[in-house]
Amino acid sequence: MPMSTDTYRTEPYHAHRDYIILTDLLHWMRDALPLSEGPVLDFGCCDSPYRSLFEGREYHRADLPGTPEIDFEIAADESIASESGRYGTVLSTQVLEHVDRYREYLSEAHRLLYPGGRLFISTHGLFEEHGHPHDFRRWTLTALAADLRRAGFEIDRADKLTLGPRALLYMMGSHFWKVNASRKSLGGFLLSQVRAFIEKHPDRWNRFNDKHFGRFNFAADIEGNESLYIGVAVVARKP
């Protein structure tokens, strides 16, 4: 399909099912953007939802064969037909979990950057399975940082996204609609009431989360003090 004009990723709205993780990733990207430089490659671009954050920059798009309006097709070995050291920024948002040969993918990102260039990468730590077309794995922050170092990168910053109570409320909002508990018991009745409220008022549920737990949107916590988190995001530099 053609590139989407939907701005729900750069302008998340409270009634959206994934508002919490979308807004947390967006805030992280804006916070990390001062580290970005030079031409940009969106590596696994889909419809390039974050392109507007790099306005005025040379911006190339790479994805699987058949994706419309791309500059490069990603081959089966995860390579693209671009010269080495071409880019100052490689962008990879919510792509890595869909890449089977992820080590080759990270090595290709390293090859494409010039020295001092940076890879901005985010993926899931704890999230439901979602194939586009496949969903292969999940990362802890420690594991992602280790994989990036093995690919030749140095870590400039590493953060967990959607932490602690914010993560718990997000998961409740995302999955309580699937709960079918008997209303004959007190527990089942209470669950049904929470489910009904979330289904009817997702915007109010997300606003409550923002108001009380907004500070848990992202944090540098690679040592694991916060064990519950939805996503991971790293800025990795090519030496």
List the secondary-structure elements in sequence, H or E. Answer: HEEEEHEHEHHHEE
Sheet of most strands:
8 strands, mixed
* Low-pLDDT residue spans: 1-5
Helix content: 25-40%
- The CATH architecture of one domain can be given as 3-Layer(aba) Sandwich
* CATH class group of one domain: Alpha Beta
The H-level CATH homologous superfamily of one domain, spelled out, is Vaccinia Virus protein VP39
Distance between the termini: 37 Å
Question: Mean pLDDT, rounded to whole units?
Answer: 90
Per DSSP E runs of 2 or more residues, the count of β-strands stands at 8
What is the approximate shape?
Answer: elongated
- Reported by name, the CATH topology of one domain is Rossmann fold
Give the class from helix and strand content and strand pairing.
alpha/beta
- Placed side by side, the strands forming the largest sheet appear as 3-2-1-4-5-8-6-7
| Spatial extent as radius of gyration | 19 Å
Give a quick precis of the structure.
The protein has 239 residues and is α/β, with parallel strands linked by helices. It has a domain at 19-163 and 216-237: Rossmann fold (3-Layer(aba) Sandwich). It is 31% helix and 21% strand.
